[in-house]
Write a structure and sequence with these properties.
67% of the residues lie in helices and 0% in strands. It is mainly alpha-helical. Among the domains are: 123-286 and 405-521, no CATH class; 293-369, no CATH class. The chain crosses the membrane at residues 26-48, 137-157, 164-181, 213-230, 259-284, 433-454, 466-486, 492-509. Residues 86-106 are annotated as: Disordered. Keywords: Membrane, Transmembrane, Transmembrane helix. This is Transmembrane protein.
Amino acid sequence: MDMALGGENERRDTAARNGRTRLLDLLRHLVCVLALMWTGLVNGQPFFFPDSTNYIRAADLAVHLASGRTLSTAWTARYAEQLPAGPPAARAPLPDRPATAEADHRTSANDLKSGLVMSGRSPYIGALIYAGWVLGWFWPFVLLQAVIAYLLIIMVLRRFDVATPRLVTLVTLVLALTTSLPTYNSMLLADGFASFGMLAVALLALPGRLSRWQIAFLVAVMVMSAIAHLTHLTMLIGMTGTLVLLRLLGWLRPPPRAWCAAIGTIVVAVLALQATTFATRMAIGRAPQLLPLLTSRFYADGPGQKFIEAGCEGNRFEACRIPMGKPYNNAAWLFSVEPQYGAYMLASPEQRRIMGEEDVAFAMAVLRAYPVEQVTASARNTLQQLLWIDYDALNQGCGTVPTCWESLPPSVRARFMRTPSGRNAWPRDLMNAILYAAVIASLLALAVTLPMLARRDRTAFVQMRNLLVITGVGMLVCCFFGGAVADPQYRYQGRLIWLPVFFALVAVLRTRQARSMEDVLR
């Protein structure tokens, strides 16, 4: 009897201990996830970026049209009056060229009345952000990104056999306190998925066992990343090419799952782009309009301006025939509505369409005319992008003037203006100093620990080397696209810069573990 009672008490104690352990694990996971979105929580709402409203309204427009224009939200009013009347088949054809070039200095690159909808803003990531708005003021979207980041952190730590609960928590909190990861998790953009896609590619490519649900999760992250933004797709293509190179060098033999996932994701992303074009044509009457990014970039670099001033090969490009001020950078060339600075926004919708279609041809003509100057400028822009990682997204306030964030619905704008971001109250300089210090310390740590890891744990060194190469190429592709093709800005590198800090932590932990094993063997 006493033995039976003793066994029962022991089982109860074990169950209680297991319950406490599960509760503590749950609390630990909750703390880590919240830490990975702490800047948004402190801000009181997720961070807006000027592009955020385009993502939200693209999804809002799709829902509005799919419902027969019966469902609308606070975001609908801004564009509802611009929608063409009737279904596409019943509308009069849009004119190829307006009778007069409108000189209303539009403040939006989108003009639904003229069938002008800009491409480049993924409706798929817009749908996720929009769902977050409908379900709870965007917080579900932020939570989703924080959870994905946390799961990827755990999976990388497991791959290097350093995923104890204490180390997972430690690494997560260090990343949350010293890097930009929580801010990009809290931002209403596609940017967070850039680093997520890179880690998913690397985890699938590195040797090691993955369960079916882990593979499914990583593939889903890759697909979402690739369809979220065109830069993510170019990064994926670059990393896939890197896998081919590593295989040829004999450094890495990627498992079949990596090839299937990479190629399949590229195909899905291309089909998604085609689906977006088709849906836009059906809804608006025309395909999405490409921004002439290369034209504006090459003009701002100098060679494009020289090309136009030299006669533009008989003025054969539309960019040579539009009124043009003196833009101080490519963003002004594209978006300024001031005649002394702007170009693109001052043109008619039809002229904008033609410039988008001629963008690559114009850039190639400039490159043929001024190859050395343009290549030098592109290399300089890429280097600038590589080194630019600031926290500039934190403060988005612009005062109380009527035009400040007029793209936001009044209720959303009022709430935004009360946040630290709307009041420019974030200590950006201090946070930048911490970020730069963490990145520099991480690069030094990698330089010190990698040779030690090569001597003490060759397998881990090879894994880390391949991880750095695969993700490093993705970062370089991103820097080239952001610097040489678009416009150098903090976001493109800032959204990825937490990865070197993360990899340095992993390398240090793995080196420490290898050294401890050597001490035990001695």
